[in-house]
């Protein structure tokens, strides 16, 4: 029978023993999903804090 490695707990398990493929259990599926959602929400929102004062040098083309 096919042995699958659970992405969450890294245990090998039989594919026919779970309905939460590719995880060994619904618990591991939820853990992975939660981790995934946390990463999505944890994206750093970049503050618009662009420093444009420096770098601009006044010079005349005359
Ligand atoms: Zn697992």
What does the secondary structure layout of this molecule look like, with pairings?
Elements: E1 3-5, E2 12-14, H1 26-41
Antiparallel strand pairs: 1-2
Bound molecules: zinc ion.
Primary descriptors:
Erythroid Transcription Factor GATA-1, Chain A, binds zinc ion, rod-shaped, 1 helix, alpha+beta, 62 residues
Q: Can you tell me about this structure?
A:
With 62 residues, the protein is α+β, with helices and mostly antiparallel strands. It has a domain of 39 residues: Erythroid Transcription Factor GATA-1, subunit A (Erythroid Transcription Factor GATA-1, Chain A). The chain is built from 1 helix and 2 strands. Strands 1-2 form a two-stranded antiparallel sheet. The radius of gyration is 25 Å and the shape is rod-shaped. The chain binds zinc ion. Zinc ion binds next to loops. Zinc ion (ZN) binds next to loops.
Assign the CATH superfamily of the domain at 3-41: Erythroid Transcription Factor GATA-1, subunit A
Write down the CATH class of the domain at 3-41.
Alpha Beta
CA-based shape: rod-shaped
Strand content: 5-15%
**Into which percent range does the helicity of residues fall?**
25-40%
Oligomer: single chain
β-strand number: 2
Low-confidence stretches are none
Give me a quick take on this structure.
By secondary structure, the chain is an alpha+beta fold. The chain has one helix and two strands; from the N terminus they run E-E-H. Helix content is 26%, strand content 10%.
């Amino acid at each position: 029978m096919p042995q699958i490695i659970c992405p969450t707990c890294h245990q090998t398990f039989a594919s026919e023993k779970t309905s939460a493929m590719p995880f060994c259990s619904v618990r591991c599926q939820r853990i992975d999903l939660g981790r995934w959602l946390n990463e999505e929400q944890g994206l750093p929102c970049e503050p618009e804090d662009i420093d444009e004062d420096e770098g601009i040098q006044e010079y005349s083309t005359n």
